[in-house]
Write a structure and sequence with these properties.
Keywords: Ligase. By secondary structure, the chain is α/β, with parallel strands linked by helices. The chain contains 15 helices and 28 strands. It is globular.
Length: 556
């Protein structure tokens, strides 16, 4: 592996004994007047962001939130998401970011699971939070942030974030790195979400690994603040320069990728331009306007950018790194992106919520490039093994098996799920459940999944709960949900069904009813996009549905 390791980068880092509050403290100390956040016409410098966050932290303390308590963030991307996020972290609370599109039943289940004491919500989704709170005993403190929506302005039972924020900032408190930073909600093989316990030390480690890899800098803890220092010989022409440049945050902040990426940018003093809906032409205009240096996203986003009407109208020369994850980026797209962004390195990475987020990344060093199709090498202090699915024996280079990982970013297990934790977090190793292989240089290639997981625009969609909803239709006898290839979304959920013999003359109506019913019960990304009616589903002798045959029938 020595011949492929990026020049100048250390294989091991020092991880200061601190919480994630030190990331924001360092940015405010090093870049006090630099723009931290831009959200439409609203912006905050790093000193303003930290001041606001510490006032929210003090307000949470005054309302009884203690270190270790959970705080829910139920809102779309906005400046106030970040203020509430850092406010909760600085108070020592565990942040539970929640998809604002969740229906009432799932939102209640998730908030109950993490035992959230306070929930920050947004006018666009506050009605759901209010409905859930009416079902909760005792009711939670609901905090409304500014924004457009049905619940804008004063609302009975809600406290505004400006009223919550104290007249004085929280002082003389440093977060214990063993406290939980994120209760990151993720799906399981059954689709039932569970909360991953990401400790502050896990989050700090993953942010420092990312910063080292992408900027060629290490960190030093000085009076409670993480400050970056250059690593001799590690800088390349693609390195992100601390205190310069910007990124655009389109990835949902309620997702682990969005939060880890934000902390990485904060550590390096970059400006984050926030967005909620992805518009390719506006995105490209913002890249030009804000001289964006780092772009992170999914293949779906990059494919849309390459088709944008204004692609050739903007100066994209400021971009140094294009990072891609969630699903493989095809080699043709990689080559095209290299031409469109002339000064950027296109890199793919791999990670999951159970590893805070990042495990591997493509090389930042053009003298030692990552092979096309690979998600790169493990971060410093990170080990990757490929093991046999049955025996768990470690496999040789070139052999496909299950991916296991170990490192300081591996989370502390699942919240309130000791049996699930014991089955996936084993002896310091994380059993990812994903399949892959490594070449002789140690580069990782993702080679399929050992679960029937569907990835829609980077979101995990689990078939089992959708199959149960489909089968609740009175005319459906059997159902299987699989992912159909889609150029824009990566995969879309589709259902194959067998219907009652007396209903075969109205299959189109049944298909419509199924899609409409499922859409009312799930988040938008989980919707069934098409329904195919078969006489029977292909199955093994033991009755297991051959989903691979169904997927093969959908191949273009």
């Amino acid at each position: 592996m020595s011949s492929s390791w990026p020049l100048g980068l250390p294989r091991s880092l020092e991880y200061p004994d601190c919480g994630a509050d030190a990331i924001l403290a360092g940015a405010a100390r090093s870049y006090p007047d630099r723009l931290a956040l831009v959200d439409g016409d609203t912006s905050l410098t790093y000193s303003q962001l930290r001041d606001q966050a510490l006032r929210v932290a003090q307000g949470l303390r005054e309302r009884g939130v203690q270190p270790g308590d959970a705080v829910g963030l139920h809102m779309p991307n906005s400046i106030w998401f970040i203020v509430a996020y850092y406010g909760a972290l600085c108070a020592g609370a565990a942040v539970a970011p929640i998809n604002p599109a969740q229906p009432v039943a799932e939102l209640k289940r998730q908030l109950d699971d993490v035992d959230a004491k306070v929930v920050f919500t947004h006018p666009s989704c506050a009605a759901t939070a209010i409905e859930v709170n009416a079902l909760s005993t005792p009711p939670r403190i609901l905090v409304l942030v500014p924004g457009a929506g049905a619940q804008s302005g004063h609302c009975e039972g809600l406290t505004s974030i400006t009223d919550l924020a104290s007249s004085k900032p929280l002082a003389d408190y440093r977060v214990d790195p063993e406290l939980v930073a994120h209760l990151q909600l993720t799906g399981g093989t059954t689709g039932k979400s569970k909360a991953v316990r990401v400790l502050h030390r896990n989050l700090v480690a993953n942010v420092l690994q990312s910063a080292c890899w992408r900027s060629g800098h290490r960190t030093e803890l000085v009076d409670g603040a993480l400050l970056v220092r250059p690593i001799d010989g590690a800088l390349t022409r693609y390195s992100i320069v601390p205190g310069e440049g910007a990124s655009i945050s389109i990835a949902p902040l309620f997702h682990g990728l969005g939060l880890v990426s934000h902390n990485f940018t904060t550590l390096l003093g970059g400006t984050v331009v926030l967005g909620t809906r992805f518009d390719p032409d506006r995105f490209l205009a913002d890249v030009d306007r804000y001289r964006v240096t780092y772009i992170g996203g999914s293949p779906t986003m990059y494919y849309a950018l390459l088709r944008a009407r204004t692609l050739r109208e903007h100066d994209l020369g400021s971009v140094r790194i294009l990072g891609s994850g969630a699903a493989p980026l095809d080699t043709t797209a990689i080559r095209t992106l290299r031409g469109v962004f002339p000064n950027a390195l296109v890199t793919e990475g791999y990670g999951l919520s159970e590893a805070t987020m990042g495990l591997t990344m493509g090389s930042p060093c053009e003298e030692r490039p990552t092979p096309l199709g690979s998600v790169g090498l493990p971060f410093p202090d990170t080990e990757i093994q490929i093991r046999d699915e049955v025996t768990e024996a470690v496999l040789a280079a070139g052999e496909t098996g299950q991916i296991w990982a170990r490192g300081p970013q591996i989370a502390d297990g699942y919240h309130n799920e000791p049996e699930l934790s014991a089955g996936q977090f084993i002896g310091g190793w994380l059993h990812t459940g994903d399949m892959g292989w490594r070449d002789e240089q140690g580069n990782l290639f993702i080679g399929g999944r050992s679960k029937d997981l569907i990835i829609y625009k980077g979101y995990n969609v689990y078939p089992q709960p959708l199959e149960e909803l489909v089968c609740s239709h009175p005319d459906v006898l059997q159902a299987a949900v699989v992912g159909a290839p889609d150029q824009l979304a990566g995969e879309i959920p589709v259902a194959f069904v067998v219907v009652d013999s007396e209903s075969v003359d109205r299959v189109e109506q049944i298909a419509t009813e199924i899609m409409e019913h499922v859409a009312t019960q799930v988040a938008p990304y989980q919707k069934i996009r098409d329904v195919y009616v078969l006489d029977e589903l292909p199955s093994t002798q033991t009755g297991k549905i051959r989903k691979n045959e169904l997927r093969d029938s959908l191949a273009p």
